[in-house]
Amino acid sequence: MTDAVKIPLRSEVPARDRWDLASLFAGPEEWERGLEAFKDMIPRVPGYQGSIGASSDSLLAALEFHAEFGLLDERLGYYANLRQSEDEGDAEGRGRFARYVMAATEAQAAWSWLLPAIQSLPEVLVDSCLAEPRFADYAVFLRKALRWKPHLLSDREERLLALQAESAGTPQEAFSVLTNVDLDFGSLDTASGPRPLSQSTFSSFMRDPDRDLRRRAYERFYAAYGAHKNVLAELYAGSVKLDKYRATVRRHPSSRAAALFPDDVPESVYDNLVGTVNDNLGSLHEYYALRARALGLPELRHYDVYVPFVPEARSRHSFAEAIRIVCAALAPLGEQYVSVLRAGIEGGWVDKYENKGKRSGAFSAGSYAGDPYILMNYKEDVIHDVFTLAHEGGHSMHSWYSARSNPFLSYGYTIFEAEVASTFNEQLVFRHLYDRAEDDAMRASLVNSKLDDLVGTLFRQTMFAEFEARSHAMLEAGEPLTVDALRGEYRELLEKYFGPIMALEEASDLECLRIPHFYNAFYVYKYSTGISASIALSERVLSGGAKEVEDYFAFLRSGGSRYPIESLKVAGVDMSSREPVQAACEQFARYTKELKRLLKL
Fold first, then answer.
1. Which CATH superfamily is domain 1-168+316-382 in?
2. Which pTM value belongs to this model?
């Protein structure tokens, strides 16, 4: 797919370029039948409440029904969400997802008694059940449920919390609709004619060698956000308030502590990340100074930080070529991994290109019963999109191995782990392309891309993590999150991370109001820890032998059977120390020096 004069409607996208969701449901009619069956199951839930502690048979029956119920719930939710992601302006898709959320909220309320009931079971009963082979599929679930005991509420309170789940999603939903559907960015005149500006095409404009075009795209893009800055600030503030509310009612000391608790990640891991990256900001500033020299600029502007250093090495890759590159690069992981991934990408896992109303960016949606689907907005002229395919393929294969190695109630790995499997693949793609580069110009282009990726994943996400920590701390200290307060904090971080070579625009700090991940608080730090872990593991696999590869597959198969720090130790990296983050920062500094040498600057 190339830059088009017109972004196609969903109905204009060929079937070969869409994902095939039949592994979840054959179509909307079957989904509707599934939803009705799901609703019919909800009234049966309370019948297990009174008997769960009567005997091991009663407990097992409740757990088996809970798993059956959850499996249908997951299928319904994934199908509805993926259909909505295809076109967020489609009323039918939005209505389908809304009806699912209503039913799921009712179901969540109906099941709200389960964890408190498990917490109150006699220890002798739980211990005896865990010793029985027939409870093997539920052992991890039971042990993790018991860990929540200090933060669970009464049955009545848990039900009240469950009932507000639907309304609690309003800030995020409103943000998504406003930014992906309602905001109109118009189009820009270019040498080849008018080009539409959208959430997805913005990245292409920012990589265009025409600096004036980048400036105009930047100004047009942020003018749309500036026109809605107060609404966007209120939406984000509302999301932070919800985080504080949930943490308070569950007796966590802070929103951050509450967010890290489910993964059993110590807050020291978060602080180690931020502290280590801050200690290495000098190398980031050297990178930006090199970027300015390479572009022939006395200072950088915010719209200068994504354009490749080496325009003459720019290249195009069709989607088929991207598949070939990714599969060749991942050959060290063995034939099964590569053949499954290739068959999936070519056989309906991927929704490939942008269409009007489609969610921006990319993601992988792996479920227990369905294929691990991938949403892309692939562009042939953006080399990063080849890496994105490898990245999302890493997520999908992680899901594929996990679902085949664990029972339903314990197959779900954490996002902390997910970002390792995805960025690990990117490391291998880079090494594959670099080792086969024909000349220094191509090597320089690849290192440029690698550095930009590390900036975005290691440094930029850590800056986001700092902002989230600051905004939540502000609210918890009683400071209102006004648009000016949020922009002020964010501008301070922009100045710290970009360093003295950057001349920020007045609108630059509006960026804090357009990051979707901020509506899933304390999520983005996992990108930075993930890239740090994946750098360590990829070096271990590529320089090792069969044992190192098998250790990595033990991690992929681990699923939700371990907490992430433990599962990564199985793979061979200790994220409770500062060492992996420091090693990633040192790799960044080496690549910066390498690029300086290649460019003779």
1. Oligopeptidase f, N-terminal domain (1.20.140.70)
2. 0.81
